[in-house]
Amino acid sequence: MHIYNTLTRRKEPFSPLVAGKVSMYVCGMTVYDYCHLGHARVMVAFDVITRYLRHRGYDVTYVRNITDIDDKILKRADENGETISALTERMIDAMHEDEARLNVLPPSQEPRATGHIGDIIAMIETLIEKGFAYAAENGDVYYRVRKFTDYGKLNNRQLDEMRSGARVEVDVHKEDPLDFVLWKAAKPGEAHWHSPWGEGRPGWHIECSAMSTCCLGDTFDIHGGGPDLTFPHHENEIAQSEAATGKTYVNTWMHAGAVRVNQEKMSKSLGNFFTIRDVLAEHDPEVVRYLLVASHYRSAINYSVDSLVEARKSLTRFYTALEGVNADEQAAPSSVTERFMAAMDDDFNTPEALAALFDLARDLNRAKSDQPDEAPRLAGELKRLAGVLGLLQQTPQTFLKGTQQQVALSEAEIEAKIAERQAAKANKDFAQADAIRDELAALGIVLKDSREGTTWVIEAP
Question: Structure pTM?
Answer without folding.
Answer: 0.87
